[in-house]
Amino acid sequence: MRNKAKGLRIKAELKFFIFIVCLFVLNSYALAADIDAPSAVAVDAQTGKILYGKNPHMKLPPASTTKLVTVMVALEKLDPEQKVIISKKAAKTPSVSPRLLNGEVYTVRDLVYLALMRSVNSAAVALAEATAGSEQNFVKLMNEKVQKIGAKDTRFINASGLPGKGQYTTVYDLTKIMSHALSYPLIKEAINTRVYLVKSGNGKEHFIQNTNHLLWLEDNMIGGKTGYTRTARHCFVSANKVKGRVVYTAILGDSNREKLWEDTQQLIARAEDVLSGKQEPVVRLSEEKSIMPVSYKSNQKLAKKTTKKKVKKTFNKRIKNAKNNKRTI
User: Fold this and answer.
1) Averaged pLDDT, 157-174
2) Largest Cα–Cα distance in the chain?
3) Which Enzyme Commission number(s) are listed (predicted)?
């Protein structure tokens, strides 16, 4: 009887253990499942550890996140106050507004703001030509730069991020790129600027607004860079500071811009949970249909995610204020 009771107790304990393991796996899967993008990551800047990852090393098109590297390379050669003449090639590069015309003159500083805040492709090409004589020569410098900083799974074929064969990056590499980009004061300033007034040498003015809408929603955002092409879909890399700690997030291939913001906030929330000890770090590899808990921990917390109603109210208010003030914020 005693042996039978002992056997029943062991069976019960085993069932309970299996239940807890299944609960953990299902909970981890649920956390991973609501990031729609094919690839996403949150990285602790202090340790370089992945706090949450979904296919973090999958090679995908970078779109305009490319421009972070473009500006880094340009600023290593050019003075921010140097004047640059827009070439015919730069002017004809497909791009969002404002349109830069052949023969117009802009400072390197203003071209940096146009490239990083508004993602103007013509500005990126103009910086490339001013730095290396041609975009083709400049791309060689870009690829040397990413290899030097350890972004081994990244390769560029142009300075703008326009689609093309052989151009790719990963979300994990993007966090390395963002980390190095923040060491350039002008980049850090530009990606944290909401609105800015650009003036050409002949007096033409362009009022531009940052494509990163989370600057109006997240008080602790250091800055970020968006990207979009039909091939790459919606992309975003950001740096967020909360209570003295920095977390990088990156997303490639999201379905729409609104989902891009939601997924970024989800990544920040997951990072908060891991750093506060509420969750273990998780890396999901969807191609292999597996989830891998990882072992490093931290007891520091990030701020709580803003509620949806508060986010929309804050966003609308800040957009209104920004439009009423045509200076850098």
Assistant:
1) 97
2) 98
3) 3.4.-.-
238 catalytic? Reply is no
Whether 290 is a known active-site residue: answer: no
- Paired with 252 in beta bridges are 39
In this prediction, residue 36 has a pLDDT band, given cuts at 50, 70 and 90, of: confident
The answer on whether 225 is annotated among ligand-binding residues is: yes
Catalytic residue among 28, 39, 54, 67: 67
Name which of 111, 26, 41, 25 is nearest 74 in CA terms: 111
Using only C-alpha atoms, the chain has a radius of gyration, in whole angstroms, of 23
pLDDT at residue 300 above 90?
no
Distance CA 2, CA 8 (A): 10
What pLDDT is stored for residue 221 in this prediction?
A: 95
Q: Beta partners for 39?
A: 252
- Given a cut of 80, is residue 31 above it in pLDDT? no
User: DSSP assignment, residue 308?
Assistant: H
Is residue 67 part of the annotated active site? The answer reads yes
Residues 6+ apart with CB under 8 A from 81: 107, 108, 109
Is residue 87 within 8 A of residue 129, CB to CB? The reply is yes
**67-110 tens-digit pLDDT:** 999 999 999 999 999 999 999 999 999 999 999 999 999 999 99
What is the model's pLDDT at position 9? 53
Q: Between β-strands 105-107 and 83-85, what pairing exists: parallel, antiparallel or unpaired?
A: antiparallel
**Catalytic residue of the set 39, 119, 160, 238:** 119
Give the CB-side neighbour count of residue 254, counting CA atoms within 13 A.
25
Please give the CATH topology (third level) of the domain spanning 36-323: Beta-lactamase (3.40.710)
For residue 120, with 0-12 CB atoms within 10 Å meaning exposed, 13-18 middle and 19 or more buried, which class applies?
buried
Q: Which of 39, 64, 87, 122 is catalytic?
A: 64
Backbone torsions φ then ψ of 82, nearest 5 degrees: -65, 140
Check pLDDT > 90 for residue 1.
Answer: no
| pLDDT range class, residue 18, cuts 50, 70, 90 | very low
